[in-house]
Amino acid sequence: MAEMRGEDRRAIPRAVSALSSILQRVADLSDLAVHRPPPLHHRAAAFHGLRRPNISVHGYLERIFRHADCSPACYAVAYVYLDRFTRRHPPVLIDSFNVHRLLITTILAAVKFMDDIHYGNAYFAKVGGISLMEMNCLEMDFLFGVGFELNVTPMIFHSCCYLLWRETYQWELPPAPLRFQYCCSTEEESSSCQ
């Protein structure tokens, strides 16, 4: 048996791998589109970096998973939060300049909403490779950006889990469209996401 060398060798949950796969494809496609960063006064401008981080989306999510000790359900809820944020701000494209900041922020919000015991903003800032001040600002921009609507109904949660499951087993199913897949499947649910 190989020596663990002090590292946590927990298996990455499928929800984390599926989320990273979806967001990497979305970011890659958005990078190909001709678009400009959001205007400075736009809520999403805080998430836009000046350069692409050197870490992949999968590597970043794996880092968060290894160090943040949040439940796998938080990753599904973070996906719902990303869905809500992009629906409220349609001109925002998830790309390689903002996906990392959006991820650390939505996961932080999901952890605070879902888990009874969790690390604080300072710890998440270190895990995310940003300053505490930036983490606090991103959290506030995100919360205002989704209108503080953090509750996720069981129906929306299960819909999101199905999308993540589908991504995990994509080779057994017809290919999913190469776009950000919304968690809400009906018009009635859509209105609750906005």
UniProtKB/TrEMBL annotation:
SUPFAM superfamilies: Cyclin-like. It comes from the Eukaryota. One of its GO terms (molecular function) is protein kinase binding. Keywords: Cell cycle, Cell division, Cyclin. Coiled coil: none annotated. Pfam families: Cyclin (PF08613). The keyword Hydrolase does not apply. GO terms for biological process: cell division. This is Cyclin.
